[in-house]
Amino acid sequence: MSLKEQLFADLKTAMKEKDTVRKDTVQLIRSGILQIEKDKKIELDDEGVIDVISKQLKSRRDSLPDFEKSGRQDLIEKLNREIEILLSYLPEQLSETEIEAIVAEAVAQTGASNMKDMGKVMAIVTPKVKGRADNKVVGGLVKKMLQGK
């Protein structure tokens, strides 16, 4: 079953169970997919769908600190539930140790020695962690590793 079919099945289930947070989250994912498919006149495969989900996950994670500052506990709980739902559609997330190993391998492969080489390292690391790690975390680890040299 493709990811798009899974989303459609989950949408129907959420509607039957009256799970509004899941229903709304899945609808947002599906509308993002549809928007890209119409704009680019293509049919998204699972990898494209994962990109859409990753972007929505990043958006929600970026919003979380603002809600925490304003003390909106109701919105924080809803946002955490949406993040949990989005993560369920993504491949298993990499641990920090696994990301460090990928970054170390890329640094060795490129011969990177300072911050000027960050782009080279990220070009190798990004495809390997796509959909499985937050780019902020990856970028932070690359910086840390390059500054330590």
From TrEMBL:
Gene3D superfamilies tied to this protein: 1.10.10.410, Uncharacterised protein YqeY/AIM41 PF09424, N-terminal domain
Signal peptide, first to last residue: none
SUPFAM superfamilies (UniProt xref): GatB/YqeY motif
Official protein name in the record: GatB/YqeY domain-containing protein
Origin species: Anaerotignum lactatifermentans
Organism classification: Bacteria, Bacillati, Bacillota, Clostridia, Lachnospirales
